[in-house]
Amino acid sequence: MNMKDTVAYLTEAIQAGKPHQIITGNPIMVMAALNDPKYMEIMKSAELVVPDGTGVVWAAEYCGVPVAERVAGFDLLHELMHVGESYQWRVYLLGSTEEVIQETASRLQKQYPGIVVCGYRDGFFGEPEDPEVIAQIRAASPHLLFVARGADTQEPWIGKYKEQLGVPLMMGVGGSFDIISGKSKRAPVVFQKLRAEWLYRLLKEPKRAKRMLALPQFVLKVKREKENVTKIV
Fold it and tell me: What whole-number distance in Å separates Cα of residue 194 and Cα of residue 196?
């Protein structure tokens, strides 16, 4: 599905009320899933995986099963917020620091006055606090839950508790709150058009270098196993 079709599909899902986990797939996640059966199961059990990473879009095209277009998680979040104004959807934000999450909540409420930011909480809590966090989210009765705790944490957390949470749409959004709050900047358009947002992030945050090692590994794996790559439809 392209972005328009994705938003239409998710709008129906939200209206139906059944819990949906949306994963914004990228090469790092794919490699993590190939190396960790538990992470693979999380990705397989998600109701929808969208092609967020440019590497995933490239791989699909290279293997002869192209996707309609890239559906970036950051853009999908904003598209859903825009559509949500018509329905007065309630949104809960979870993750990042207290300062960032407060500013994100404030800016989103001002940008999309038709939606209701019904709650937010920073991401600094451990498993012992999970029941309390789940209770807070359930009490807020959101239609959408956006979680920003890092791909190694946010997807497993949503996957583990999605039935208890009972939120119609739950999606990990990585560093989106940092960008929305103004703490960080999104890659310039030129980087986006060149499919090189990963390079911009690496230049801005050299500490990501170790994590980025998964990218060349992904490319090599795709090229070596091109004939075995399939797209589930």
Answer: 5
Q: What is the pTM of this model?
A: 0.88
Pull the structure tokens for residue 58: 């490239």
Say what the pLDDT of residue 190 is: 65
Q: What token pair was written down for 231?
A: 């797209």
Q: Burial, 26: exposed, middle or buried (Cβ in 10 Å; 0-12, 13-18, 19+)?
A: buried
CA–CA separation, 155 and 167 (whole Å):
15
Please name which of 227, 221, 233 lies closest in space to residue 33, comparing C-alpha atoms.
Answer: 221
Could you identify the residue written with the tokens 């994100």? 104
Beta bridge partner(s), residue 95: 148
By C-alpha distance, which of 169, 108, 107 is closest to 137? 169
Task: For the chain, list residues with pLDDT below 70.
Answer: 185-212, 230-233
With H, G, I as helix, E, B as strand and everything else as coil, classify residue 230.
coil
SS3 92: strand
Cα 195 from Cα 81, distance rounded (Å):
25
The β-bridge partners of 93 are 120, 146
Q: Please give the pLDDT value at position 198.
A: 56
**pLDDT for 191:** 61
